[in-house]
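Table S2 (continued). Query chain:
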Amino acid sequence: MKRDVQRPADPGWRREWHDIIFEADSPAGRWFDIGLLVAILASIVLVAMETVPEYAAWQDQFVLCERILAGLFTIEYVMRLMTVRRPIKYAISFWGIIDVLSFLPTFIMPLMGASSASFVTLRAIRLLRVFRVLKLWRMMDDADELASAVWRSRNKIIVFLSVVLVAVTISGTLMYHIEHLDGAEGSGQFTSIPQAMYWAIVTMTTVGYGDIVPKTTLGKFISAALILLGYSLIIVPSTFVSAEIIQQTQTPDEPPCPHCAAVGQPVDAKYCYRCGDLLHV
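Corresponding output:
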């Protein structure tokens, strides 16, 4: 397996600890990452529980546990810096910044009289290490294929989003004016065109919060048309991406049969599936 370029070149304790902390090939490395994931999940649960009013009496215990976990994350971060070849490069990398933000606000924000909950949730990003722990490299390859398909479909997706934006703008503007005709009953909800565009987005995506509803007959007709339009458009982006994935993963077929011109011959076929004649004469 290809090692990290940050792995120390000289053998010794730094290389051994680097393999444990940054790799999951050995049992020690695997258990280290599993323990780290458990600590991350525990810290996220603690931050979430601090916001529940029913558990206000446990606030001090939650804060204490959170600080203990933040201390463990601090030790982990220092160990990562000590076991890489270029500590500064790791510190300014994406994962290095995420590691710092996962524990530093816990110690700084209370001194400023603010809550660190919003920063602590950045630890959820570190749960992506589960791909390494579970050895799901195949899944990572599939994710790369999906990202590549989305990128190749970007022009079609941009055109699609532009059409949706135009539809939202037109329907929102129409709904605003229709609901304000002659002091209509629903004019109090459609207070502005942006408000009406918000309603159009909620309606087109078939979410339907119900906080803003049309009252006029014509407004209800536009609402129904927008819902049907949303149903027909919601599958369009997935179609673009699916077509690109199929084009990327499909294997080329053999040339057509020279006798019956049947296409779609398997790559390793020797005889035509339709007429049975030899393909390669």
